[in-house]
Amino acid sequence: MAILVNEDTRVLVQGITGRQGAFHTKAMLKYGTKVLAGVTPGKSGQSIEGVPVYDSVEEAVAQHPEINTSMVMVPAPYAGDAVIEALDAGIKLVVVITEHVPIHDAMKFIAYARLRGSNIVGPNCPGVITPGAAKVGIMPGHIFKRGRVGIVSRSGTLTYEIAHAVTVKGLGQSTCIGIGGDPVVGLNFIDVLEMFRRDEETEAVVLIGEIGGDLEERAAEYIVKTRYPKPVVAYIAGRTAPPEKRMGHAGAIISLGAGDPASKVKALTEAGVHVASTPGEVADKLVQLLK
Protein backbone atom coordinates (compact mmCIF):
# COMPACT_ATOMS: atom_id res chain seq x y z
CA MET A 1 0.00 0.00 0.00
CA ALA A 2 3.07 2.28 0.38
CA ILE A 3 3.18 4.90 3.14
CA LEU A 4 2.05 8.51 3.60
CA VAL A 5 1.06 9.20 -0.02
CA ASN A 6 -0.76 7.01 -2.54
CA GLU A 7 -3.49 7.06 -5.20
CA ASP A 8 -5.91 8.50 -2.62
CA THR A 9 -3.74 11.54 -1.85
CA ARG A 10 -5.52 14.84 -2.49
CA VAL A 11 -3.27 17.89 -2.24
CA LEU A 12 -3.56 21.54 -1.27
CA VAL A 13 -0.59 23.81 -2.10
CA GLN A 14 -0.03 26.69 0.33
CA GLY A 15 1.94 29.40 -1.46
CA ILE A 16 0.79 28.20 -4.89
CA THR A 17 1.07 31.58 -6.63
CA GLY A 18 4.76 32.02 -5.81
CA ARG A 19 7.34 31.12 -8.46
CA GLN A 20 8.36 27.87 -6.75
CA GLY A 21 4.81 27.01 -5.73
CA ALA A 22 3.53 27.37 -9.29
CA PHE A 23 6.49 25.49 -10.79
CA HIS A 24 6.17 22.47 -8.50
CA THR A 25 2.38 22.43 -8.74
CA LYS A 26 2.80 21.98 -12.48
CA ALA A 27 5.37 19.21 -11.94
CA MET A 28 3.13 17.38 -9.46
CA LEU A 29 0.17 17.57 -11.82
CA LYS A 30 2.31 16.27 -14.67
CA TYR A 31 3.37 13.35 -12.45
CA GLY A 32 -0.28 12.50 -11.83
CA THR A 33 -0.68 13.84 -8.30
CA LYS A 34 -4.20 15.09 -7.63
CA VAL A 35 -3.73 18.75 -6.69
CA LEU A 36 -7.18 20.11 -5.89
CA ALA A 37 -6.57 23.62 -4.60
CA GLY A 38 -4.07 26.28 -3.66
CA VAL A 39 -3.97 29.02 -1.05
CA THR A 40 -2.43 32.48 -1.21
CA PRO A 41 -4.08 35.21 0.89
CA GLY A 42 -5.47 37.95 -1.34
CA LYS A 43 -5.31 35.85 -4.51
CA SER A 44 -8.70 34.08 -4.31
CA GLY A 45 -10.32 33.60 -7.71
CA GLN A 46 -7.07 33.05 -9.57
CA SER A 47 -5.98 29.65 -10.89
CA ILE A 48 -2.56 28.06 -11.38
CA GLU A 49 -2.37 25.30 -14.00
CA GLY A 50 -6.13 24.99 -13.70
CA VAL A 51 -5.98 24.65 -9.89
CA PRO A 52 -8.27 27.14 -8.11
CA VAL A 53 -6.72 29.52 -5.59
CA TYR A 54 -8.36 30.48 -2.30
CA ASP A 55 -7.60 33.04 0.41
CA SER A 56 -7.51 30.54 3.26
CA VAL A 57 -7.13 26.83 3.96
CA GLU A 58 -10.55 26.82 5.61
CA GLU A 59 -12.12 28.14 2.41
CA ALA A 60 -10.24 25.63 0.23
CA VAL A 61 -11.21 22.65 2.40
CA ALA A 62 -14.84 23.80 2.47
CA GLN A 63 -14.87 23.69 -1.33
CA HIS A 64 -12.77 20.50 -1.57
CA PRO A 65 -13.47 18.40 1.55
CA GLU A 66 -11.50 15.45 0.14
CA ILE A 67 -8.20 17.33 0.63
CA ASN A 68 -6.03 15.26 3.03
CA THR A 69 -2.51 16.60 2.37
CA SER A 70 -0.91 20.04 2.22
CA MET A 71 2.38 21.11 0.70
CA VAL A 72 3.73 24.29 2.28
CA MET A 73 5.88 26.55 0.08
CA VAL A 74 5.27 29.72 2.05
CA PRO A 75 8.19 32.10 2.84
CA ALA A 76 9.92 31.14 6.10
CA PRO A 77 8.57 33.97 8.33
CA TYR A 78 4.98 32.90 7.55
CA ALA A 79 5.43 29.13 7.20
CA GLY A 80 4.64 28.40 10.85
CA ASP A 81 1.27 30.12 10.67
CA ALA A 82 0.55 28.34 7.37
CA VAL A 83 1.18 24.93 8.95
CA ILE A 84 -1.01 25.73 11.97
CA GLU A 85 -3.76 26.84 9.57
CA ALA A 86 -3.57 23.51 7.71
CA LEU A 87 -3.68 21.53 10.96
CA ASP A 88 -6.66 23.55 12.24
CA ALA A 89 -8.49 22.65 9.02
CA GLY A 90 -8.05 18.95 9.82
CA ILE A 91 -5.38 18.12 7.23
CA LYS A 92 -3.56 14.96 8.33
CA LEU A 93 -0.31 15.22 6.35
CA VAL A 94 1.59 18.51 6.00
CA VAL A 95 4.77 18.50 3.91
CA VAL A 96 6.85 21.59 4.71
CA ILE A 97 9.25 22.32 1.85
CA THR A 98 10.20 25.79 3.14
CA GLU A 99 13.76 26.18 4.41
CA HIS A 100 15.06 28.57 7.09
CA VAL A 101 11.90 28.11 9.21
CA PRO A 102 12.66 29.55 12.68
CA ILE A 103 13.34 26.65 15.03
CA HIS A 104 10.77 27.80 17.60
CA ASP A 105 8.10 27.91 14.88
CA ALA A 106 8.99 24.35 13.87
CA MET A 107 8.89 23.13 17.48
CA LYS A 108 5.47 24.74 17.92
CA PHE A 109 3.79 23.27 14.84
CA ILE A 110 5.37 19.83 15.26
CA ALA A 111 4.04 19.63 18.84
CA TYR A 112 0.63 20.89 17.69
CA ALA A 113 0.51 18.28 14.90
CA ARG A 114 1.11 15.49 17.42
CA LEU A 115 -1.78 16.77 19.55
CA ARG A 116 -4.04 16.70 16.51
CA GLY A 117 -2.91 13.28 15.27
CA SER A 118 -1.38 14.70 12.09
CA ASN A 119 2.02 14.08 10.48
CA ILE A 120 4.59 16.73 9.55
CA VAL A 121 7.31 16.00 6.99
CA GLY A 122 10.07 18.62 7.13
CA PRO A 123 10.64 21.49 7.33
CA ASN A 124 13.44 22.05 4.81
CA CYS A 125 12.70 18.83 2.96
CA PRO A 126 12.21 17.63 -0.63
CA GLY A 127 8.94 15.86 0.20
CA VAL A 128 7.47 12.40 -0.30
CA ILE A 129 6.99 10.23 -3.38
CA THR A 130 5.32 6.88 -3.92
CA PRO A 131 6.41 6.11 -7.49
CA GLY A 132 3.58 5.82 -9.97
CA ALA A 133 1.01 6.98 -7.41
CA ALA A 134 1.75 10.49 -6.11
CA LYS A 135 4.52 12.91 -5.27
CA VAL A 136 4.16 15.78 -2.83
CA GLY A 137 7.22 17.98 -2.98
CA ILE A 138 10.08 18.86 -5.27
CA MET A 139 11.61 15.45 -6.05
CA PRO A 140 12.31 14.80 -9.76
CA GLY A 141 9.74 12.11 -10.46
CA HIS A 142 11.44 10.57 -13.50
CA ILE A 143 14.28 8.98 -11.48
CA PHE A 144 11.91 6.90 -9.34
CA LYS A 145 10.30 3.58 -10.19
CA ARG A 146 7.77 1.57 -8.19
CA GLY A 147 9.51 -1.23 -6.37
CA ARG A 148 10.57 -2.91 -3.14
CA VAL A 149 12.89 -0.47 -1.35
CA GLY A 150 11.79 2.20 1.11
CA ILE A 151 14.07 5.24 1.36
CA VAL A 152 14.22 7.71 4.25
CA SER A 153 16.73 10.54 4.09
CA ARG A 154 18.00 13.70 5.76
CA SER A 155 19.76 14.79 2.57
CA GLY A 156 18.03 16.10 -0.54
CA THR A 157 20.53 15.63 -3.35
CA LEU A 158 21.87 12.32 -2.06
CA THR A 159 18.32 11.00 -2.00
CA TYR A 160 18.08 11.50 -5.75
CA GLU A 161 21.49 9.98 -6.45
CA ILE A 162 20.84 6.84 -4.41
CA ALA A 163 17.23 6.47 -5.59
CA HIS A 164 18.41 6.64 -9.19
CA ALA A 165 21.00 3.91 -8.54
CA VAL A 166 18.28 1.74 -6.95
CA THR A 167 16.12 2.29 -10.03
CA VAL A 168 18.98 1.39 -12.40
CA LYS A 169 19.52 -1.87 -10.49
CA GLY A 170 15.88 -2.76 -11.17
CA LEU A 171 14.75 -2.71 -7.52
CA GLY A 172 12.69 0.46 -7.46
CA GLN A 173 11.17 2.21 -4.45
CA SER A 174 8.01 1.64 -2.43
CA THR A 175 8.06 5.17 -0.98
CA CYS A 176 10.84 7.75 -0.62
CA ILE A 177 10.71 10.34 2.17
CA GLY A 178 13.00 13.29 2.72
CA ILE A 179 12.56 14.08 6.41
CA GLY A 180 14.53 17.35 6.21
CA GLY A 181 17.91 18.53 7.33
CA ASP A 182 16.99 20.92 10.15
CA PRO A 183 17.80 20.21 13.82
CA VAL A 184 14.06 19.82 14.54
CA VAL A 185 11.90 17.86 12.10
CA GLY A 186 8.47 16.28 12.18
CA LEU A 187 8.71 12.62 11.21
CA ASN A 188 12.13 11.19 12.12
CA PHE A 189 13.97 8.02 11.13
CA ILE A 190 12.24 5.91 13.79
CA ASP A 191 8.77 7.09 12.77
CA VAL A 192 9.41 6.20 9.14
CA LEU A 193 11.14 2.89 9.92
CA GLU A 194 8.03 1.91 11.89
CA MET A 195 5.83 2.77 8.91
CA PHE A 196 8.04 0.75 6.57
CA ARG A 197 7.94 -2.16 9.05
CA ARG A 198 4.17 -2.36 8.56
CA ASP A 199 4.23 -1.79 4.78
CA GLU A 200 3.93 -5.02 2.83
CA GLU A 201 5.43 -3.49 -0.33
CA THR A 202 8.68 -2.56 1.44
CA GLU A 203 11.19 -5.43 1.59
CA ALA A 204 14.28 -3.40 2.53
CA VAL A 205 15.00 0.11 3.78
CA VAL A 206 17.67 2.67 2.86
CA LEU A 207 18.55 5.18 5.59
CA ILE A 208 20.50 8.22 4.38
CA GLY A 209 21.94 10.14 7.29
CA GLU A 210 24.43 12.94 7.73
CA ILE A 211 26.59 14.48 10.39
CA GLY A 212 25.01 16.39 13.25
CA GLY A 213 22.43 15.43 15.84
CA ASP A 214 21.72 11.90 17.02
CA LEU A 215 18.82 10.75 14.81
CA GLU A 216 20.94 7.97 13.31
CA GLU A 217 22.11 6.69 16.69
CA ARG A 218 18.52 6.66 17.92
CA ALA A 219 17.46 4.75 14.82
CA ALA A 220 20.18 2.17 15.49
CA GLU A 221 18.94 1.73 19.06
CA TYR A 222 15.36 1.28 17.78
CA ILE A 223 16.48 -1.33 15.23
CA VAL A 224 18.14 -3.37 17.99
CA LYS A 225 15.37 -3.00 20.58
CA THR A 226 12.55 -3.94 18.20
CA ARG A 227 14.51 -6.60 16.30
CA TYR A 228 13.72 -4.81 13.06
CA PRO A 229 12.61 -7.50 10.62
CA LYS A 230 13.73 -5.97 7.32
CA PRO A 231 17.28 -5.41 6.05
CA VAL A 232 18.51 -1.82 6.37
CA VAL A 233 21.28 -0.25 4.29
CA ALA A 234 22.65 3.12 5.41
CA TYR A 235 24.91 5.83 4.09
CA ILE A 236 26.19 8.71 6.25
CA ALA A 237 27.06 11.92 4.42
CA GLY A 238 29.69 14.38 5.59
CA ARG A 239 32.43 12.02 6.75
CA THR A 240 35.17 14.52 5.86
CA ALA A 241 33.50 17.51 7.52
CA PRO A 242 35.69 19.34 10.06
CA PRO A 243 34.37 19.60 13.66
CA GLU A 244 32.53 22.78 14.74
CA LYS A 245 31.88 23.89 11.14
CA ARG A 246 28.36 24.12 9.76
CA MET A 247 28.03 22.23 6.49
CA GLY A 248 25.03 23.68 4.67
CA HIS A 249 22.19 22.14 6.64
CA ALA A 250 21.25 23.74 9.92
CA GLY A 251 21.44 20.32 11.53
CA ALA A 252 24.79 19.34 10.06
CA ILE A 253 27.31 20.35 12.68
CA ILE A 254 29.57 18.21 14.84
CA SER A 255 29.84 19.64 18.33
CA LEU A 256 31.34 18.42 21.61
CA GLY A 257 31.90 14.96 20.22
CA ALA A 258 28.25 14.46 19.26
CA GLY A 259 27.00 13.99 15.73
CA ASP A 260 30.28 12.84 14.20
CA PRO A 261 30.12 10.28 11.38
CA ALA A 262 32.21 7.67 13.19
CA SER A 263 29.72 7.37 16.06
CA LYS A 264 26.84 7.06 13.60
CA VAL A 265 28.57 4.39 11.52
CA LYS A 266 29.57 2.47 14.67
CA ALA A 267 26.04 2.55 16.13
CA LEU A 268 24.41 1.46 12.88
CA THR A 269 26.96 -1.28 12.19
CA GLU A 270 26.56 -2.70 15.68
CA ALA A 271 22.78 -2.71 15.10
CA GLY A 272 23.23 -4.98 12.10
CA VAL A 273 22.73 -2.25 9.51
CA HIS A 274 24.74 -2.60 6.30
CA VAL A 275 26.63 0.71 6.12
CA ALA A 276 27.90 1.72 2.68
CA SER A 277 31.13 3.70 2.40
CA THR A 278 30.00 5.46 -0.81
CA PRO A 279 26.54 6.33 -2.20
CA GLY A 280 27.20 3.99 -5.11
CA GLU A 281 27.60 1.02 -2.75
CA VAL A 282 24.06 1.32 -1.42
CA ALA A 283 22.33 -0.18 -4.45
CA ASP A 284 24.96 -2.95 -4.72
CA LYS A 285 24.35 -3.97 -1.11
CA LEU A 286 20.59 -4.01 -1.71
CA VAL A 287 21.00 -6.30 -4.70
CA GLN A 288 22.95 -8.76 -2.53
CA LEU A 289 20.38 -8.61 0.27
CA LEU A 290 17.33 -9.00 -1.97
CA LYS A 291 18.61 -11.82 -4.19
CATH architecture of the largest domain: 3-Layer(aba) Sandwich
How many β-strands, per DSSP?
14
The CATH class of the largest domain, by name, is Alpha Beta
Give the rounded overall mean pLDDT: 93
Q: Which radius of gyration do the C-alpha atoms yield?
A: 18 Å
Helix count equals: 9
* CATH topological fold name of the largest domain: Rossmann fold
Characterize the largest beta sheet: strand count, sense, and whether it forms a barrel: 7 strands, mixed
Strand order of the largest sheet: 3-4-2-1-5-6-7
Tell me the β content. Answer: 15-25%
For CATH, the homologous superfamily of the largest domain is named as: Succinyl-CoA synthetase domains
SSE sequence, one letter per element: EHEEEHEHEHEEEEHEHEHEHEH
* Poorly predicted regions: 252-256
Task: Summarize the amount of helix as a percent range.
Answer: 25-40%
Shape: globular
Structural class based on helices, strands and sheet pairing: alpha/beta
CA-CA gap between termini:
22 Å
* Count of domains: 2
What's the quick description here?
This protein is of the alpha/beta class and 291 residues long.
